[in-house]
Amino acid sequence: MAERRALKRRDHFIGASLCLAYVLLLATTAGELGMSRDESFYVHAAKSYAGWVSLLFSDPFVAIGRESIDRAWAYNWEHPAWMKLSFAWSWLAQKHLGLFANESLAFRFPGMLTAGLLLWLIYAWGASVMRREGALFAALAFALMPRVFYHSHLACFDVPIAFFVTLTAYTYWRALSDHRWVPLVGLAFGLALATKHNSWMLPAIFLIHFLWIRSDEARAGYADRTSIAWLPSMLIVGPLMLIGTWPWLWHDTWSRLLGYARFHLRHVHYTYEYLGVSYFEPPLPVSVPFVMTLFTVSLTVLALCLFGLYHQREGLRPPWKTKLGDAMGPRTDVLWLGCMLAPILAIALPTSPIFGGTKHWITAYPFLALFAGWGLVAVIDRADLDAWTGRRWPSWAFAALCLLPGAAQTAHSHPFGLSHYTPVAGGVPGAADLGMNRQFWGFTTGSLAEWISSRLPEGGSVWICDTTTGAWAMMHRDGLIPSDVRVASSMSAADFVLVHHERHFNEVDYQAWVAFGSVQPVFVLRYDGVPIISVYENPKFADRD
Amino acid sequence: MAEAGRKLSLSAWVWVLIAGLAVFELVAHPLIRAAIPTDDSWAAATAFVRARYQAADRIVAAPSWADPIVRSHLGDLLSLRMAAPADPAGVDRVWELGIRGATTRDEPPNLEEDFGGVRVRMWLVSTDRVLYDFVENVDQAHVELVVADGPQECPWMKASPARGGLEHGPMTPAERFVCDPRRPWLWVGATVLQDLELQPRRCIWQHPAGTDPVRVTFSDALLGERLVIHGGIDYQSERRRIHGPVTLRVWIDDRLAGELIHRDGDGWSGIDIDTSELGLDRAEVRFETTAEDPRARLFCWSASSVRGAVDG
């Protein structure tokens, strides 16, 4: 059971410092990451939306007309606008003020900012219910998850939606005891809705949690019961914000909303390799999100999370098992558990579309980290570590020890975040033995930029496999690849052919063999000894040296 | 007191357990990395194999994910037939470059050396001798598309290759028989198929056009004891298991000698035709593909005339 403790200025100083430090770390390490497939689509969309924003200022009546909106907003209509608008604003700021070191950083900055704000939020919420070292541990444990670190760099929606989901949960939690927070629940939920569809499950999670509390209160015989005002706030303000921030929905609203919902409810299935099998249609094994979490999050953090759950078991007890007359407070434990399990279970459902990547249940990880923080505090308390010396350093040393594996793994994972696996999987080579997905999105081409540039000093062309032309163009603009090294549309016309190693991409490998009459790559980009990209050289152009 | 003592020891255990997990992760991480073979190890191992390589040797990697590394060192020694074997024939020795204790064969090798974590093993194997590889001789064939008016010749020509890419199917070779430019998939030529197990198979692409056959004739093919035939459909098409079968009929001197009916889910499968009783060293061998519904039937086949290996 956890009661809320008021935060002090010092708490926000710590939260803000975490935020700032993480954003700086992300900004300084982003240059090593080639742009990913999905980012390139959102960049294209953001540029289109930026054009519309400019029109809105210069000629608002024309801008809000259907023709202008459709022209600007038809691209990438399947995702809401909020983050893409943020990317657009950031890019406009870069164009006019030159704030960032390069263009990709301008697009990525809003996502990085949400990652930093999420650390602040994790810390703040944690510090509201547990000792500060637990809260700090939770924020850092989240920041130092290798996959989280990777996704935090991107101009995508996954870390932003983790932030907005956590923010909505926090505002809901505050609104349960303070009516002033009720409008903020709707606002936060609106931003979550306007970021990504992961948010759709929030009302159901909150409703279950709320009924839990109400049941407690009924059994305790409370007359003054917790208000449900948060629900109308969510259901009214949330959709209004979704529509208000997304001009695509300003015309033909219902059919476009339905189209958006239908797109995600009937989402195409990706091909995803898991334990040696390439899945391409449901059902994906139920174990996927659990095993992938085990293989990609530090074991120490997971153990602390489990211990935190065990430690909080009293607060997780269902209403009918609580002692008659006992009220259990805001049931923070139940809310966190719901927010942690719902995204994981949604992916585990046999009927869910095949996604596979940890990013699809990344909204669970802030809560996993918070339980780990609780676990840390519980372990320290039970062991009474500080009593041994009469000082606090053993607790901090223990916390630091528990963070070190995540820190070491995250440092080593960069810039191959999606290829990284923890020692539980046997590391990167162990995961390759087990037949785990090695990468997606084609972003690892960024790690070849130097090699390609050195091999084509007088320009040339590259067939870029899973990398998009938009991502390649961004590498041009960022100065990673010379502008005279172009994308080849056909293998046979390219100087070099790249093959990103995912199992179902084997056919591309074989295509290159036939195209060039050779099975010998001239270079194999490896990460911990595991092939990431093979590069084939066109024998027609091999004498350039 | 006894209760307090029990609780204290349990608490200490949890702390030690968690600290132990952290230490395990911290130690395991560099240990895993330290066990990765260096470039020098790969170079030494592959140099060892290269110095002993003979024409009928096959080179494989264990585990299979290390294959690109092995090919980057020794790929120039590997023909497409050896890298994408349609059948096991024509191999005298198998070289395996293995890491992490992985292996492709259970029996003890005839030779074994270790190079800093890269284990080289070699087995002498007894496989059929290949007398005639139809895939490698496809340019010698005569190709026709049978239509209502009769056979229509498919000329051998240089044609623009495919762009390549995921779900694009096997690569069109630069030279191939082109049956109908309006149907770009209606060509015949040697390529590499990704079979249902995602393995590479060197084969002749012969997409059926319907119930009227696409016909490939080798007018003077060498025959041995058996004709070993395999066929399969591209992984992306076959994996959904929703399309109809493809029939490959084999005619030797105008007599139906065998029929391979490939159904989705069969994977890379085949038939053996006994040719020892025919008393022919050479014959006209004809391959015809048909399908009731030719949609998405990205069919590819291989055939070899073989004779049993001679011991010693």
Q: Which residues of chain B sit in consecutive blocks of at least 5 with pLDDT less than 50?
A: 1-6
Sheet bearing the most strands of chain B, described? 8 strands, antiparallel
Kindly report the CATH topology of the largest domain in chain B. Answer: Jelly Rolls
The H-and-E topology of chain A, N to C, reads as: HHHHHHHHHHHHHEEHHHHHHHHEHEEHEE
Strand composition percent of chain B: 35-45%
Quick tags:
heterodimer, A: 545 residues, mainly alpha, 2 domains, two-stranded antiparallel sheet, 57% helix, globular, B: 312 residues, alpha+beta, Jelly Rolls, eight-stranded antiparallel beta sheet, six-stranded antiparallel beta sheet, 5 helices, disordered N terminus
Question: What does this entry look like structurally?
Answer:
The complex is a heterodimer of chains A (545) and B (312). Chain A is 57% helix and 6% strand. Chain A has 545 residues and is mainly alpha-helical. Chain A has 2 domains: 9-375, no CATH class; 443-544, no CATH class. The termini of chain A are far apart. The model of chain A has no long low-confidence stretch (mean pLDDT 95). Chain B folds into 2 domains: 39-127, no CATH class; 130-307, Jelly Rolls (Sandwich). In chain B, the strands form 3 sheets. In chain B, strands 5, 8, 9, 10, 11, 13, 16 and 18 form an 8-stranded antiparallel β-sheet that branches. In chain B, strands 7-6-12-17-14-15 form a 6-stranded antiparallel β-sheet, with no helix packed on it. In chain B, strands 1-2-4-3 form a 4-stranded mixed β-sheet, with helices on one face. In chain B, 44% of the residues are buried. At the A-B interface, helix 15, helix 17, helix 19, helix 20 and helix 23 of A face helix 1, helix 3 and strand 10 of B.
